[in-house]
Amino acid sequence: MTLPPFTKSGPLPAHLKGLLLTLLGVLLISPDTLLVRLINTDEWTLLLWRGMAQSLVLLLLYRLWVGRQWLHKARALGKALLIGSLLFSGTNIGFIVSLTNTSVANTLAIIAATPLFAALLSWIILREKTAPRTWLAIFGAAAGIAVIISASWRGGSAIGFGGGAFYGDIVALATALLLAASFVGLRLYKDHNMLPCIILGAFFSGLVGAALSPDYLLPDGSYRWIALLALTLPFATLLITLGPRYLPASEVSLLMLLETVLGPLLVWLFLAEQPPRETLWGGSLILLVLALHALVGLHRQRRKTRQKDLPPGPAPAPIAD
To answer: Mean pLDDT: which of 19-23, 45-49, 140-144 is highest?
Structure first.
């Protein structure tokens, strides 16, 4: 299976194609947290099944996409393959551990700040210039995260999780930092297909689950949810990976905010898991900051594009001697 070249030509405009790919990916990944809740097992058994299923399906998709050279192209990444895989493995582990210790709303709201953490790490590691609006967004998101975590510290967000809610929030924060580091790595290797890192990372997280799982078995009736997760999560990952090739990063960030809204909404509708007031306030602040940051970035990018598309002005008249 060969994907069409990433150009503006073709049956769909590039912008619309990226919009549809990213939106479909977000819609497919949004029920992930609900499925985790429905499976209702310990984090390590869940990690085992989720990681192995994700890696297997993604590997099949990658094999169809790249062809017979899939193993050679994966090996060509060198040390980036190992480092990227460990980072993605850490995000998988942190995501599941956080979800099993705190509310879905807390986990998704904290992880939503990942793009801002990535900007901060890019400034530290890559010495990339950080715009003033990004610094303002980072401080705003930090304030929102502090509001969420403060409720867990006081025990206000323990929705069936006991005193582990604070622990789950801290793990979500660590997960966001690991995911941000993986995004910085993607920038370093932007000319390479880094899907093998996601595949191997999912496999590593499954191995960790296998090592710590008490019996490897899921509760009765949970295997159908794992099957549904195995069908949706890898395709969502692939679509969200392709989206930025057609869309500006700011638009992708805006679309990804839908998961932060839809994930807790689905869990609330089906399982009546209602986030506490502090999570609503802190999460709303994070979403507002991210949305404003992305909208300003999108506006500036479109303005630059319009300026590039303008025809050149008339040549200046020659100056007489």
So the answer is: 45-49
In this prediction, residue 301 has a pLDDT band, given cuts at 50, 70 and 90, of confident
257-266 in b/e form (b: 16+ CB < 10 A) is bebbbbbbeb
What are the pLDDT digits (tens) for 100-125? 998 899 999 999 888 888 888 888 88
In which residue are the tokens 């979500």 written? Answer: 172
Scan for tokens 């192995």, then name that residue. Answer: 52
Closest CA to 46 of 214, 234, 272, 165: 214
* φ and ψ of 293, to 5 deg: -60, -45
Confidence of residue 164 (pLDDT cuts 50, 70, 90): low
Give, to the nearest 10 degrees, the angle between helix 249-271 and helix 14-29: 30
| Selection from 228, 267, 204, 218 nearest residue 52 by Cα | 204
Q: What is the per-residue pLDDT for 32?
A: 93
Cβ neighbours of residue 189 under 8 Å, at least 6 residues apart? 77, 80, 84
Quick one: CA dihedral 37, 39, 42, 44, positive or negative?
A: negative
Specify the pLDDT at position 54. 92
User: Which token pair is 72?
Assistant: 């050679």
